[in-house]
Amino acid sequence: MVKAAARAYIGGMVTRLYTHPIFLEHITPPGHPERPDRLRAIERALDDEAFAALDRAEAPEGDEATILYAHPQEFVERVRAMIPATGIARVDADTTASPKSWQAAVTAIGAANAAVDDVFRGNAENVFVAARPPGHHAEKTTSMGFCLFNTAAIAARYAQRQHQAERVAIVDWDVHHGNGTQDIFWDDPSVLYCSTHQMPLYPGTGAVSETGAGNIVNAPLAPQTGSEVFRDAFLSRILPALDNFAPDLIIISAGFDAHHRDPLAEINLTENDFDWATGQLMQRAGRHSDNRLVSLLEGGYDLQGLAFSVVAHVGRLMKG
Ligand SMILES: [Zn+2]
């Protein structure tokens, strides 16, 4: 076993990975892009000598009470009531629930909150949470876009309530705009929400003019653009906003569907762009938040593109 001190000595970061078998039991209908095989592809990709030093942990059971950090009780009960005893229930046009979806969603929240605990307690510099269902489309009172609850938003508020973080930044590079995260923090200047996303594309929000309380930075990308435009959005919009905000914690809504192989969008990033963006955010975490960085899987629907991207992302988290 490699101890943290030894790893620090050789210059690496202590990177933790949370996952859990329950995440495979959130079942979606046949042909649905958000499927259990996504996590199997990630697991296979990280089952490699290069990731031997990754500190692997099983996600703890989530605390349902923390869902209320981002969603009202009445909505939580509405979602609970939609979970079917058998089969698959339709939540909206493209969002579904199976019998274990509640447990999967709550465990995803448990993993994200545990990741926040880890970076504040010094158990790890950074953490990647490979969970599903994803979360960034879930608004205060609406499950949508494959998402039941907004895991990233709950984790941000968890950091504020449990670890006295004053300012939390959420950087969302999923190719879809995180309308849910924007909705939840629209009038909350203690959380900075920065997003790169294809526009036009689902869900239709994310214009530059949507700025909330001055805490929302949207950097829409035109279809068929790629690395250069994405990196420019980071360099000219997102990184300066982070420096200005000086967060106590950076959370990444890490969707990998801006990869050129992804079937749901038309942005042409490669895994090298995710490596680069990860490095940039680590630099800001080093500057402002004592390296504290928590990365939560959102989208990414081409299994090979997803696997390559996660390898680049987690590899960079470990290398520093
Ligand atoms: Zn997406």
UniProtKB/TrEMBL annotation:
It comes from Mesorhizobium ventifaucium. It comes from the Bacteria. Its EC number is 3.5.1.48. Residues 32-315 form the Histone deacetylase domain. Pfam families: Hist_deacetyl. Keywords: Hydrolase. GO terms for molecular function: acetylspermidine deacetylase activity. Belongs to the histone deacetylase family. This is Acetylspermidine deacetylase Deacetylases, including yeast histone deacetylase and acetoin utilization protein.
